[in-house]
Write a structure and sequence with these properties.
401 residues; 4-stranded antiparallel sheet; elongated; disordered N terminus
Length: 401
């Protein structure tokens, strides 16, 4: 059985070992996993309850499902100006974390099975058929090194377990000290990881690990900054399906680490009727009626609307959630007033650091933001290495974080 370390195993019920990659002249087995319905269910574990590893069926933390229940509970009871289901106190308690610089909000750690395929694919892409030919020419076999991973800019850390999996894939005996964890806010030049191991493996894994860590930390940082701008308002910041192909599970995890909430993971999570569906069905009302007839009341049904007339049509047809697309603030407020107690409201379009607060202040339940996953700048992270004197294997001791 191929192992990353004593707690992370590459082989699982969905694994078939077949592919290989060359690392400093050695062939390393890379698993070829056939995704089954069961593994898709495991992938959906991204929405596990806080504090639980994401390796089970989806929980009720889906924003649409949860907010639909809230909308029903408050039906007719109050208007948008008096909604108090989520205020600054709850945000402050969640974001307080466990100490300075630590955020321990509503996110659960990812189960390794959700990212090990991605790690193997990324390494195979970078190593190619011959491996790291530069390192093989410059660094002698058996050389050992110590490496320090650090942030060059302030931000929120996300993706350390994934980065570690990259290094451990090439050096299972890697020694690790982790001064930081996912969800920590760090300053420039702060150390994220300290590593000791095979010098060739560290160099071969460096760029893949930094790419993933920088990408995910950038998303977490951008999400955190938006969440902070509306932390005293009821609205939640949610992501979209505008993710990098192949990275969705990680990028949506990064949104949660940043304090945001995940929207649909995929097309099979719920019904979202967009403008092209309107056109093909003959109108938003007809599209909603067809979807409701096909799926019944148990599937969350959201409809995109651009005008108040379309909103009234979607409500009359039984939409649970209204996606208010590119509406100015005055129209958003009017839409919320019409929908309160009848449907969840979600604002979309034109959301940025300078506009998010004005949009959230209209009373919408959700503010969806596509750019936090497709355009957030990566956090600048680096790896600095130094040689280690030769030491017998038996003399090495595992560093404890």
């Amino acid at each position: 059985m191929t192992r990353l370390d004593p707690t992370i195993t590459l082989e699982d019920p969905f694994t078939r070992h077949s592919a290989t990659a060359s690392v400093d002249g050695r062939e390393s087995q890379l698993p070829d996993r056939a995704e089954s319905r069961a593994s898709r269910s495991a992938r959906r574990g991204l929405r596990a309850e806080p504090g639980r590893a994401c390796d089970a069926e989806p929980s009720a933390t889906h924003p649409i499902a949860g907010l639909s229940a809230r909308a029903e509970a408050r039906a007719g009871s109050r208007g948008p100006e008096s909604r108090t289901e989520k205020g600054p106190e709850s945000r402050t308690e969640s974001a307080a974390g466990t100490g300075p610089g630590r955020f321990r909000g509503d996110f659960a750690p990812l189960a390794p099975r959700l990212y090990l395929d991605l790690v193997d694919g990324a390494l195979a892409e970078d190593l190619g058929q011959a491996g790291d030919v530069t390192t093989q020419a410059v660094v002698p076999p058996g050389a050992r090194a110590e490496a320090t991973m650090l942030a060059r800019r302030p931000g929120r850390v996300c993706g350390l377990p994934v980065a570690l999996a990259v290094f451990r894939r090439l050096d299972p005996d890697l020694e690790v000290r982790e001064p930081r964890r996912d969800g920590d806010d760090v300053g420039a030049a702060e150390v994220l990881l300290r590593l000791r191991g095979d010098a060739r493996a560290l160099l071969a894994a460096e760029r893949t690990a930094l790419n993933l860590l920088g990408r995910l930390s950038g998303i977490a940082t951008a999400t955190r900054d938006l969440v902070r701008r509306v932390e005293d308002l009821p609205a939640r910041i949610v992501c979209t399906r505008k993710t990098t192909p192949g990275l969705r599970v990680l990028e949506k995890y990064a949104v949660r680490v940043g304090g945001g909430t995940n929207h649909r993971f995929g097309l099979d999570d719920g019904v979202l009727i967009k403008d092209n569906h309107h056109r093909l069905a003959g109108g938003v009302g007809e599209a909603v009626r067809r979807a409701r007839a096909a799926h019944g009341p148990g599937v969350p049904l959201e409809a995109e609307v651009e005008t108040l007339a379309e909103l009234d049509e979607a409500l009359a047809a039984g939409a649970d959630v209204l996606l208010l697309d590119n509406m100015p603030s005055e129209r958003l407020a009017a839409a919320v007033a019409r929908a309160v107690g009848r449907a969840v409201t979600e604002a979309s379009g034109g959301v940025g650091p300078d506009t998010v607060r004005e949009i959230a202040a209209t009373g919408v339940d959700l503010v969806s933001v596509g750019w936090i996953t497709h355009s957030a700048p990566a956090l600048d992270v680096a790896l600095e290495m130094a040689p280690l004197a030769s030491e017998p294997r038996r003399a090495r001791r595992r560093l404890v974080g």
